[in-house]
């Protein structure tokens, strides 16, 4: 309880309540103050509840709060008998009743705000059936229901948009950026229009450009149509191939089939489909509907706490114990007819379960077969796309196998020839290795002979000289060719430079003149700019002074106008008060009784006297109720005990009567049996 009070105080001290309570001050609040706090919390959830409960009757306050708590789906703790105590506690502002309500409301304020907002539009007004016989009322009710459904869809879309991540600030930024881009494009189009207007025949050129753009768009549209038609043609060809394959497979399947086997297969399929439609699917549909109804019921109920779960677990345990007791009683009876029927029922349930299992297996096999057929069609399409050939079936596949066999014999022969070539290659490689070894031996002998003669390295140097001379001749030829190419390129470059110089000479002269003019114009522009800046600064200072003076005069004018209107209003109010005071004095002083009754003083005194009398009566009534409350409650308890006693007597009498009737029947049966025996 202390944690609950602490949570309530912490939330009441936050926004938007800002009550500045602590645990002691909150616990010492009076019942009327607690009711006012509860009303403030309810007003934060639903703005229609903003009421000062001191100006409202307690019955109306309790009715209003109970209706809103019912809309918010608040369930008070306890059973149906505690509802009366809950209502009484809500009327008198009892702390054990108010604290749980405040704790529940402050825990889920945002969720309850949404629920209260939706309740304003989604609580349906029940119209009696006799009023719905009228066409106008029926049409209005139908329109009301349609508007309610439209509100539901719009609210769902709004919630989806809120959770989708799009913010108004981002949308506004995008809109402002688009508007800036639009302005820039408009300015660019205007500049281009001004630039184009100086060109000759610009209207004709614009018309031609427009036609060109239209033709390009038409070309793109036609290309897109062409691509779509190609795709459609490709899909149509694929569909045709699939249908042809299905036709071939059906013909192949029907070639060896007989009418009796086809009829038998069709009968089996019809039986299976009828079983699925009449027995299996309705059961599954019914189970799904029950599950959906249960889930909707769970969703419609409010969030459950730990205490609610414990209560549900205790109820489940009690029901399970009752079920076990009933089963034990049934087993104790052990009636033979029920035993035989239970055997038949068990056999029937086993058969039905086996039937359902086989039906599910058959359904899974059909689905697997369909998926495999789809995979086969996909694979055939892929192979057709890769090499353009179809998957072979039947006789074509046999012919293909025979071709493969003939090709395999040819492959074996070729493979044997390749093996012979490989063996010959090995022999040649070995001979090459032997020749290399012999060459190395000869080179070694030659080096030893050169060393003996004193001319070692003669053969190597001779080979190197021959190789270097060959390389030198090649390099000399390449150098000659490159020198010729470079001389020709230099000549071409010189001729081009001279041509460009002669062509650019008049342009350079014009450029020098234009540079001089540009320098003169820049000097003149700088002078004019300095003059403009000085003049603009002076004008800006004068403008700011004038603006300040105008602003001050406007403020003075507004103050004077407001003062004038205020004085006029005060004069009018004083005149009205003076007129009322003179009328009151005339009525109070006059000798006419009717005029005196019209006076405000007399009316107020009369109202005060009436309210005092009413207060006295209510206090007397309250006193009488308090005095008779205890005896009345005792009398009500005694009456309930009397009702229970009479109900018990009634049950005992009925049991005794049933037992006497059963005894009479047994006596009559024995007498009849004895008579038959004699």
From TrEMBL:
Residues 3-126 form the IFT81 calponin homology domain. Keywords: Cell projection, Cilium, Cilium biogenesis/degradation, Coiled coil. It comes from the Eukaryota. Pfam families: IFT81_CH (PF18383). InterPro entries: IFT81, IFT81_CH, IFT81_N_sf. Gene3D superfamilies: Intraflagellar transport protein 81, N-terminal domain. Residues 137-246, 309-382, 504-621 form a coiled coil. Its main location: other. It is found in: Cell projection, Cilium. Belongs to the IFT81 family. This is IFT81 calponin homology domain-containing protein. The gene is IFT81.
């Amino acid at each position: 309880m202390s944690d609950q009070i602490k949570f309530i105080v912490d939330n009441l001290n936050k926004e938007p309540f800002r009550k500045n309570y602590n645990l002691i001050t909150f616990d010492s609040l009076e019942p009327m103050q607690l009711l006012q706090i509860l009303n403030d919390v309810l007003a934060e959830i639903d703005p229609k509840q903003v009421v000062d409960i001191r100006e409202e009757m307690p019955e109306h306050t309790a009715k209003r709060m109970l209706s809103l708590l019912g809309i918010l789906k608040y369930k008070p703790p306890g059973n149906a008998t505690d509802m009366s105590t809950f209502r009484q506690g809500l009327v008198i502002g009892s702390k054990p009743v108010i604290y749980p309500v405040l704790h529940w409301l402050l825990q889920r304020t945002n969720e309850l705000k949404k629920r209260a907002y939706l309740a304003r539009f989604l609580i349906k007004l029940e119209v009696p059936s006799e009023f719905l016989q009228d066409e106008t009322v029926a049409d209005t009710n139908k329109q009301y229901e349609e508007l309610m459904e439209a509100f539901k869809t719009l609210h769902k879309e709004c919630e989806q948009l809120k959770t989708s991540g799009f913010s108004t600030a981002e949308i506004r930024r995008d809109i402002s950026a688009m508007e800036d881009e639009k302005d820039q494009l408009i300015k660019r189009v205007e500049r281009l229009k001004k630039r184009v207007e100086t060109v000759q025949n610009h209207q004709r050129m614009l018309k031609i450009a427009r036609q060109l753009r239209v033709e390009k768009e038409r070309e793109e549209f036609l290309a897109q149509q062409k691509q779509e038609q190609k795709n459609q043609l490709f899909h149509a060809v694929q569909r045709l191939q699939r249908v042809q394959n299905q036709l071939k497979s059906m013909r192949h399947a029907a070639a060896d089939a007989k009418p009796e086997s086809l009829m038998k297969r069709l009968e089996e399929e019809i039986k299976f489909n009828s079983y699925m439609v009449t027995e299996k699917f309705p059961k599954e549909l019914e189970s799904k509907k029950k599950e959906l109804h249960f889930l909707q019921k769970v969703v419609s109920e409010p969030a459950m706490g730990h205490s609610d779960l414990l209560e549900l677990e205790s109820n489940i345990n009690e029901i399970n114990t009752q079920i076990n007791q009933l089963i034990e009683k049934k087993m104790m009876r052990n009636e033979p007819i029920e035993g035989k029927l239970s055997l038949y029922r068990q056999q029937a349930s086993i058969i039905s379960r086996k039937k359902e299992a086989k039906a599910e297996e058959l359904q899974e096999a059909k689905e697997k077969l369909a998926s495999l057929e789809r995979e086969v069609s996909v694979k055939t399409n892929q192979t057709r796309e890769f090499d353009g050939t179809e998957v072979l079936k039947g006789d074509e596949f046999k012919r293909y196998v025979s071709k493969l066999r003939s090709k395999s014999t040819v492959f074996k022969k070729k493979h044997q020839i390749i093996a012979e070539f490989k063996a010959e290659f090995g022999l040649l490689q070995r001979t090459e290795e032997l020749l290399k070894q012999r060459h190395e031996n000869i080179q070694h002998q030659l080096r030893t002979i050169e060393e003996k003669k004193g001319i070692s390295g003669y053969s190597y140097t001779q080979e190197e000289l021959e190789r270097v001379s060959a390389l030198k001749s090649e390099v000399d030829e390449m150098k000659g060719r490159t020198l010729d190419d470079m001389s020709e390129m230099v000549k071409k470059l010189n001729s081009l430079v001279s041509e460009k110089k002669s062509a650019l000479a008049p342009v350079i002269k014009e450029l020098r003149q234009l540079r001089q003019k540009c320098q003169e114009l820049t000097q003149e522009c700088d002078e004019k700019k300095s003059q403009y800046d000085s003049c603009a600064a002076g004008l800006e200072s004068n403008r700011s002074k004038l603006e300040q003076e105008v602003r001050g005069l406007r403020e003075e004018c507004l103050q004077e106008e407001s003062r004038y209107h205020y004085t006029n209003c005060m004069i009018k109010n004083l005149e009205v008060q003076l007129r009322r005071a003179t009328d009151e004095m005339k009525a109070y002083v006059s000798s006419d009784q009717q005029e005196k009754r019209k006076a405000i003083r007399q009316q107020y005194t009369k109202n005060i006297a009436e309210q005092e009398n009413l207060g006295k009566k209510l206090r007397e009534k309250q006193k009488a109720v308090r005095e008779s409350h205890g005896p009345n409650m005792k009398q009500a308890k005694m009456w309930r005990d009397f009702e229970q006693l009479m109900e018990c007597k009634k049950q005992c009498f009925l049991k005794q009567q049933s037992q006497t009737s059963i005894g009479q029947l047994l006596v009559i049966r024995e007498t009849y049996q004895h008579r038959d025996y004699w």
